[in-house]
Design a protein that fits this description.
The complex is a heterodimer of chains A (273) and B (298). Chain A has 273 residues and is an all-alpha fold. Chain A has a single domain, classed as MetI-like fold (Orthogonal Bundle), CATH 1.10.3720.10. Chain A contains 15 helices and no strands. Chain A is globular. Chain B has helices spanning 7-42, 58-64, 67-98, 106-114, 121-131, 137-144, 158-187, 191-198, 203-214, 216-231, 235-240, 254-264, 269-296; strands at 45-46, 53-54. The two termini of chain B are 33 Å apart. The longest helix of chain B has 36 residues, at 7-42. Chain B folds into 2 domains: 7-54, no CATH class; 67-296, Orthogonal Bundle (MetI-like fold), CATH 1.10.3720.10. Chain B has 298 residues and is an all-alpha fold. In chain B, a hairpin with a 6-residue loop joins β1 and β2 (53-54). Classes of the chains: A mainly alpha (273), B mainly alpha (298).
Chain lengths: 273, 298
């Protein structure tokens, strides 16, 4: 095979692989939108064209579920959870990197080791802890255990390696206190790191399922994820209605991702080194 | 630093170091370390609900004689052994293709392939459940293309139900791993690759013998996180099977079994904690092996 032909073939294969992967990746989203306009019977028959059942489905979903309430619950958890996680975990990531000591390095290793602990292994004691504190069925119980995330601490520490120490030292000579250096210098300099972390943490919080499933037991405290899960758990789910729910559950994360895509990619670039 | 290690400065750094990490450490201690230790203690107790008595190694004996536990363990291992390699290889191939400087529409491809990571685990499981229905869109397409003669019952056939779970997780997480590889690739020095290209090394050769070795640490990181993720598999199987892990426990995972032991059946916290420690041991063992495998090649 001539080099030119070989290169052409490689290039064609590359486009084929990427187009196929892109098609498969996007199809379920397309299916979700199409499905929202079709009746459950048509969805079950695999109809892939727009139907006329959109309003019936919307009505169905809004009757089955208190939509504003569950959206508010999800938003509340995602916003407060994300803000607190970013604050506490970035403080720790920065602290571990900027002020080193032997003891703290050891503790950092333990923090990293907790990444290996599956949630299933801690959920029973966690549930008992929340139950004895009277926090079952509250959103605080959902947010509290997620705030100090070992993964996000690790992420911020990795990214902090790119933060110029001279900036810190110069600010210190100018008389700034450490918390001021963090707040007024580190945070603005690292904004693309924060943006990427925001995308990741927001998604983790918005999509959280197992822990809310255990803790949130009344309809008034449920999140959108719990609502669509319980609607779809029937043996013959009313897919047309459920599709409206999956769209509402997906839109916020889609929006966050597209709004911050550029910073997200930049932030990831900074952390993988 | 030039200011040397005067005692005052050292103290200053130490105090600030603790102040910055204190909130996170307090929370990790309360919501991570305490539950892990508590779980270990619970695993020595047995009984229904809050009425527990000391059982010593009783739970381990029960574990050994519990066919459902062995089923859940083997399912989890099957998911892990088959799914993780497929996903890592796919993600590497895609990242490498995307990293080609002459590629057009790379932003579009990247966004499309990353998109699944934006979906919620529950939402996409519901979508997959409807797409893979017996008369659903996937079976119809395959039949129209002549790839299968009879529709597959993805949700009720023991073999295909497992395949469906593997397809679903691969769909959701390939793009996520791909982003890590792509980021690492873009940070790599391209001159070695360029030199090899000029020397006539074909692209697959450069990919296998230049790119992959340079990505070793990222591959290790993603393999470990994927291992942890797969061993903890819950949301997808719960949503695809209405929480049963059916058909007849064929998709039951360890996490789902623990959930069922705790919150679906009569709660048995002690035994559930014992099962949960199996995952801890597995994750630790596999992460260690993966570290070791990568270290050896140095």
């Amino acid at each position: 095979m001539s080099p030119l032909l070989a290169r052409r073939t490689a290039s064609a294969l590359r486009y084929l692989l990427l187009s196929f992967a892109a098609f498969l990746s996007v199809f379920p989203f397309f299916w979700m939108v199409i499905g929202a306009t079709n009746t459950t019977a048509d969805i079950n028959k695999g109809k892939v064209s727009l139907g006329s059942a959109l309003w019936d489905n919307v009505n169905g979903f809004f009757t089955a579920v208190d939509v504003p309430l569950i959206l508010w619950n999800s938003t509340k958890i995602a916003i407060f959870g994300t803000a607190l996680t970013m604050l506490v975990s970035s403080l720790a990531g920065y602290g571990f990197e900027m002020f080193r000591s032997k003891l703290r390095e050891r503790i950092y290793t333990v923090v990293l080791l907790t990444l290996m602990v599956p949630f299933a292994a801690i959920m029973i004691p966690l549930f008992m802890l929340m139950a004895s504190s009277g926090l079952i069925n509250t959103h605080i119980a959902i947010i509290l255990p997620t705030i100090a995330s070992a993964f996000i601490i690790f992420y911020f520490r990795q990214a902090s390696k790119a933060f110029p120490r001279e900036l810190h030292d110069a600010a210190k000579i100018d008389g700034l206190k450490e918390w001021q250096i963090f707040l007024f210098i580190y945070v603005p300099v690292m904004r693309s790191t924060y943006a990427a972390a925001f995308v990741i943490v927001f998604m983790m919080n918005w999509n959280n399922y197992l822990w809310p499933l255990i803790v949130l037991q009344s309809n008034e405290t449920k999140t959108i994820t719990l609502a669509i899960a319980s609607l779809s758990s029937a043996y013959y789910p009313d897919y047309g209605t459920v599709m409206i729910g999956t769209i509402l559950a997906t839109l916020p994360t889609l929006f966050v991702f597209f709004a911050m895509q550029r910073q997200f990619v930049q932030g990831m670039l900074g952390s993988v080194k | 630093m030039a200011m040397a290690k005067s005692g005052g400065l050292k103290r200053y750094y130490n105090v600030n170091g603790w102040l910055f990490v204190a909130p996170a450490l307090a929370l990790i201690g309360l919501f991570m370390i305490y539950p892990i230790l508590n779980s270990l203690m619970l695993s020595a107790y047995s009984g229904r609900g809050m009425m527990m008595r000391f059982a010593g190694f009783g739970n381990l004996v029960r574990l050994y004689n519990d066919p459902i536990f062995w089923k859940a363990l083997s399912n989890t291992i099957v998911f892990f052994i088959i799914q993780v390699p497929i996903m890592i290889v796919l993600a590497l191939l895609i990242a490498n293709a995307l990293n080609n400087p002459r590629l057009r529409f790379s932003g579009l491809f990247r966004t499309a392939i990353f998109l699944p990571c934006v979906s919620s685990l529950v939402a996409y499981s519901i979508l997959f459940k409807s797409m893979f229905a017996v008369d659903g869109v996937v079976n119809r397409t395959f039949m129209a293309l002549g790839l299968m003669e009879q529709p597959i019952s993805w949700l009720t056939d023991p073999f295909w139900a497992k395949v469906l779970v593997i397809i679903a997780i691969t769909w959701r997480w390939t793009g996520y791993n791909m982003i890590f590889y792509l980021a690492a690739l873009q940070n790599l020095d391209r001159s070695v690759d360029e030199a090899a290209r000029i020397d006539g090394v074909p692209s697959w050769g450069r990919f296998l013998f230049l790119t992959i070795p340079m990505l070793k640490s990222v591959i290790l990181f993603t393999t470990i996180t994927s291992t942890i993720g797969t061993l903890q598999l819950f949301d997808e199987v719960y949503s695809l099977t209405e929480g049963t892990g059916g058909p007849s426990n064929e998709t039951l995972t360890l996490s789902l079994y623990i959930y069922n032991l705790t919150f679906r059946f009569m709660p048995n916290f002690g035994y559930a904690a014992t099962v949960s420690y199996v995952i801890v041991v597995l994750v630790a063992l596999l992460s260690f092996l993966q570290f070791y495998a990568v270290r050896e090649r140095k």
